C-alpha cells in the first residue's frame, strides 16, 4: 500500500513475504507453483494499532429528572468508595486497576494489577 508520498505504509513495512506453494491443476497429479497472498506478521502489526487508555472513577445511576436538575456546584455520588483503586480500561474494556498520581503537570496512573490484558501473542 502506498501513501501520497510514495512510501510504504508504516504498518506494512518489512512484514510482507511472498509464499509459493504447490497448487493442484485441473489435471490430476499435476502441480504448478502459484503465488499466494503476502503473509503479514500480525503480532508486529498489532503493536502499532493505537488504543485509548482510560481510568474510570465510578458511575451513578440517576433518573432523567435528577440529571435535568444537575448544575454548577451539584454533587453526584458515585458507586466507588473514596481511596478505592480505579478501573483501567482499554477501548472501553476493563483490564486492571490503578491509582491516580501526579506526573509533572499532568495526572498519571500507577498500575496496581492487570487481570484482563493478554499480550502474550504479541511477543513474537
Automatic annotation (TrEMBL):
UniProt keyword list: Cell membrane, Cell projection, Chemotaxis, Cilium, Flagellar rotation, Flagellum, Membrane
Annotated localization: Cell membrane
Coiled-coil features, chain-numbered ranges: none
Record domain Flagellar motor switch protein FliN-like C-terminal: where: 46-113
Annotated InterPro entries: FliN-like_C, FliN/MopA/SpaO, FliN_T3SS_HrcQb, SpoA-like_sf
Highest taxon of the lineage: Bacteria
Membrane is among the record's keywords: yes
A Pfam short name: FliMN_C
Membrane topology note: Peripheral membrane protein
SUPFAM superfamilies noted in UniProt: Surface presentation of antigens (SPOA)
Similarity remark: Belongs to the FliN/MopA/SpaO family.
Record's protein name: Flagellar motor switch protein FliN
Amino acid at each position: 500500500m502506498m501513501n501520497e508520498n510514495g512510501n510504504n505504509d508504516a504498518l506494512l513495512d518489512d512484514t510482507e513475504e511472498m509464499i509459493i506453494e504447490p497448487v493442484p491443476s485441473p489435471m490430476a497429479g499435476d502441480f504448478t507453483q502459484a503465488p499466494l497472498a503476502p503473509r503479514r506478521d500480525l503480532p508486529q502489526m498489532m503493536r502499532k494499532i493505537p488504543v485509548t487508555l482510560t481510568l474510570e472513577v465510578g458511575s451513578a445511576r440517576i433518573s432523567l429528572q435528577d440529571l435535568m436538575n444537575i448544575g454548577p456546584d451539584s454533587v453526584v455520588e458515585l458507586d466507588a468508595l473514596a481511596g478505592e483503586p480505579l478501573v483501567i480500561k482499554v477501548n472501553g474494556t476493563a483490564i486492571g486497576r490503578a491509582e491516580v498520581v501526579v506526573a509533572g503537570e499532568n495526572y498519571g496512573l500507577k498500575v496496581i494489577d492487570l487481570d484482563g490484558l493478554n499480550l502474550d501473542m504479541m511477543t513474537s
